[in-house]
Design goal:
Blueprint: H1 12-21, H2 26-35, H3 41-48, H4 53-65, E1 69-73, E2 81-85, H5 87-90, H6 93-106
Antiparallel strand pairs: 1-2
């Protein structure tokens, strides 16, 4: 069979991960919650910088719906909401560590 007639098989697992974590800010949000001990909306927004409130809200809601983070509303005035990694989110930490190590080894400081 000719190469041009073969269909490329997609890896469904990788495709699913890309759909879940493919948002512009999701990896960075998980990073701050996991490694920088940042759990509140305002703190996340300040550390990320260029993100809008609506975009941060959308990304947080999607991460919560996908089971990576949990949201705790303290029902206080002024409002206080904190985000934490779920067990699923915590299970992603070794992936971050590998990504960091790979980046340090292969991208060099000049590209960061």
């Amino acid at each position: 069979m000719k190469k041009s007639t073969l269909a490329v098989e997609r890896c469904k697992t990788v495709s699913t991960i890309q759909k879940i974590l493919g948002g512009k800010w999701k990896i960075e949000i998980i990073y701050y919650i996991a490694f920088q001990d940042i759990h509140r909306f305002g703190e996340l927004r300040r550390h990320i910088g260029d993100i809008t409130e609506s975009s941060l809200t959308k990304q947080l809601r999607e991460l919560e719906a996908d089971g990576f983070i949990s949201r705790h509303d303290y029902k206080e005035v002024p409002p206080r909401v904190e985000y934490n990694l779920t067990d699923l989110g915590k299970s992603f930490i070794p992936v971050f560590e590998h990504m960091k190590r790979w980046g340090d080894e292969n991208l060099g400081k000049e590209s960061l």
